[in-house]
Amino acid sequence: MIQSTMMSYELTLTHFLDRAERYFRNTEIVSRMPDKTLHRYTYQIFVKRAKQLAGALAKAGLKPGDRVATLMWNHYAHLEAYFGIPAQGGVMHTLNLRLPPKEIAYIANHAQDRFLIIDDVLLPLLKTFEADAKFERVFVVPLTGQPVDTSSGYENYENFLESGYGSYTPVHIHENDPAAMCYTSGTTGRPKGVVYSHRALVLHSLVEVMQDALNLSNRDTVCPVVPMFHVNSWGIPFAATMVGAKQVYPGPHLDPESLLDLYSAEGVTVTAGVPTIWLGIAQALEKQPNTWNVSGLRMAVGGAAMPEGVMRRLESQGCVVLHAWGMTETSPLGSAAFIKRTLADRSEDDVYTWKAKQGIAVPFVDVRITREDGEAPWDGQTMGELEVRGPWIAGAYYDMPDAVTSFTEDGWFRTGDIATIDEEGYIEIKDRSKDLIKSGGEWISSVALENALMGHEAVAEAAVVAIPDPKWQERPLAAVVLKPGASATVEELAAILSDHFPKWYVPEHIVFVDEIPKTSTGKFMKAQLRERFRDIAGSDQPAAMP
Q1: What three-state secondary structure class fits 462?
Q2: Crossing angle of the two packed helices 348-355 and 308-316, in degrees rounded to 10
Q3: Using one digit for the tens of pLDDT, what is the confidence trace for 333-373?
Q4: Which domain holds residue 486?
């Protein structure tokens, strides 16, 4: 029997680090600091410091598999942690700084984090939960330039790095060893931990840079707006380092004007974030025309559906928008909405229909739609739960044996997303299973209604939720935020929906609100809206509420 003659070669993140040092040492990494000044250094210095961090952690007693938490914005020191911790066999665990303090403490304790690396500007947050956490040592990154208060037991990150000078010794790492760890946002029950292997992150990076995915190359300048504590910034820091792209990090300054200024000053060609970020960018570009040149800027959008109207507005300004889909459990890239060559000559409206979907599964990710009666056809109409499998898809949660219902007996991950897949293979997320509205025995997609409402020029944001109804079981309610200075009536918005959907889809209640509550990752907190408006059906309250 013939056997392969290929070498056995471990797929580990340390290869990315060594490659960057050898080939890209003069490429820049730029970070915006809390005072808006720019920190610059090259890959050569980055690699040196990442290896010093690995050496310092070894001296501190880090053992293979030990977790090192980070509580940081997007910047150079966080990138050092992305590579320095796994290089020593540790597991980098990004803590979400936007979660409630008690939840951060729960996650840190559940993960059994030994050490914490934190920005000095986030020390007030740490003080709200550190009594409940169990960190052995806390290393403070002095972003502001102010002395670190060591009287509280904190240590200066720069001094800690110095302790590792010249002491880094490569350790043997198996490709299936853990490298990083993230927790879900906990929208349904307790947050759940996902542990990523070196192999999973390497394969994910190789696919992510493909032209039919995020299309990253050495010639790009990449600015991930998505937080580095949110699914490893969608894997972009790993992929960008692999190809040696110039990296630009925005720090805590995520308002549209600050981002646009940074894009222009640094020549950013690729950026990535959630729809709420891009909605703000679209509004800024329209409010201040000719202020920034974004022609050719490639924008990856994920975390929630991007309304087609917002996509068109951005592309009218010269941007190129790519819809993608993923989750914490999928590392996260699962699909990308590139336009296949066989569809490129279709009408503009048809092309936008596909661009507004979540796209085609990327290589090595298998997808299917399931219902109670089995697997659903790919007809673009039949809805069911999206299930996925692949080499960077979670097969279990960390230390949570009662979460087995998230995985099928034949080895697929149940996403909780209700979706269709059309004949061309394009996935369209219709809703989260918990957000789908069942009215009179028929299903209504809240996402479809939201996207249509946000197509109105006066609408900044819209969220649609189910409210109890004595006759129909559930009916949709739309909460709408208008743009500053804009106006719209309930009748106008209802008319738009009537043009796109059957009568029974259209909400009886369209309410105007000042803001829509959001999760730490920018997703709508629909549970709060459902609770706020649960008694509106059958009441004497008007359709439009202040």
Answers
A1: strand
A2: 110
A3: 999 999 999 999 999 999 999 999 999 999 999 999 999 99
A4: 435-533
| Residue with the two structure tokens 């990710």 | 365
Structure-token match 């809703």, residue found: 431
CATH of the domain at 502: 3.30.300.30
Q: Is residue 272 part of a domain?
A: no
Global pTM reads 0.86
Residue 385 domain-assigned (yes or no): no
How many Cα neighbours within 13 Å face the side chain of 51? 20
What whole-number distance in Å separates Cα of residue 515 and Cα of residue 416?
A: 26
CB burial of 65-80 (b: ≥16 within 10 Å; e: otherwise) equals ebbbbbbbbbbbbbbb
Domain limit, last residue, from 199, 226, 261: 199
Task: Please report which helix (H) or strand (E) contains residue 302, including its range.
Answer: none
291 within some domain: no
CATH number assigned to the domain comprising residue 11: 3.40.50.12780
241 and 76 in contact (C-beta within 8 Å)? Answer: no
Q: Tell me the pLDDT tens digit for each residue of 103-144.
A: 999 999 999 999 999 999 999 999 999 999 999 999 999 999
Condensed to tens digits (0 to 9), the pLDDT of residues 235-256 reads 999 999 999 999 999 999 999 9
Instruction: Calculate the average pLDDT of the chain.
Output: 93
Amino acid at 88: Q
Residue after which a domain boundary falls, among 199, 221, 247: 199
Instruction: Give the whole-angstrom CA distance, residue 298 versus residue 236.
Output: 14
Backbone phi, then psi, for 108, in 5-degree steps? -60, -40
Active site residues per annotation: 184, 329, 438, 443
Report the domain count for the chain: 2
User: pLDDT value at position 544?
Assistant: 44
